[in-house]
């Protein structure tokens, strides 16, 4: 069911925000350590230093906020990439952005012992940029120029290349394996609030850019010739969109590692009820992306309790069959 009226879409956004708040609260109270609703409220209104209150403030709250920020960023990045490439299967992980950012961070951690949060963030942006440029170059070679299938193949090739290089580095230095292996699987567990605060300005800038160019993206999706005929500077729009994707995808990898499939699942779900107007798609993708990752993270706590499954595995369990379904349907959810 597609929401056609503006009031319906605004109401949907309000419902989405309320659900996002609800799942943040559920993320705080659910897990191996039983926490009541009253205990969770008291942790913020009447902190007493108890073990439960410390877990809420130092572990559960940062985890919920990080899942919200990363999920929202990856959802919006996926929507931007699908519009930019006109490829319904595009997402930061499919097109190699996550793999490029991950490889650059692993190189920095293993070979140069980089530990600064700011340095790690910029390294992730650099890796995502290199991967994006390589995919764009490879996908544009040939007489037909950039096509969706060429972009998908180029992205898969670059993702495989950086993934292989990363695994090769880990084999060469087994002492660093434990340090990066859990991070490589994509997780919001154990992440400190400080790393979110260090990267958050870049994520906010990326989201602001995405919202501000949403109307231009609507025009660009009509086709490059049509966009130029309407006076749009298509190269500038593509460049700004690419910068937003790099900020969102690179920042997310810097915080939580390479979490896949959010960027492909969320935009299709959003389009099924919000339509094809990117002025609505982008904010909806932010909200639904945050909800999706929070749900996946809550589920990851119960699959092998008392152990926890990295949330990247949970998103893959949902995203892989979804990707196959979308591919068989020719890029449409229904």
Automatic annotation (TrEMBL):
This is Iron ABC transporter. It is a multi-pass membrane protein. Belongs to the binding-protein-dependent transport system permease family. FecCD subfamily. InterPro entries: ABC_BtuC-like, ABC_transptr_permease_BtuC. Pfam families: FecCD. The chain crosses the membrane at residues 12-32, 64-83, 95-114, 120-139, 151-172, 192-214, 235-266, 278-296, 308-327. The keyword Membrane applies. The keyword Membrane applies. One of its GO terms (molecular function) is transmembrane transporter activity. Keywords: Cell membrane, Membrane, Transmembrane, Transmembrane helix, Transport. GO terms for biological process: siderophore-iron import into cell. Gene3D superfamilies: ABC transporter involved in vitamin B12 uptake, BtuC. One of its GO terms (cellular component) is plasma membrane. It comes from the Bacteria. It is found in: Cell membrane.
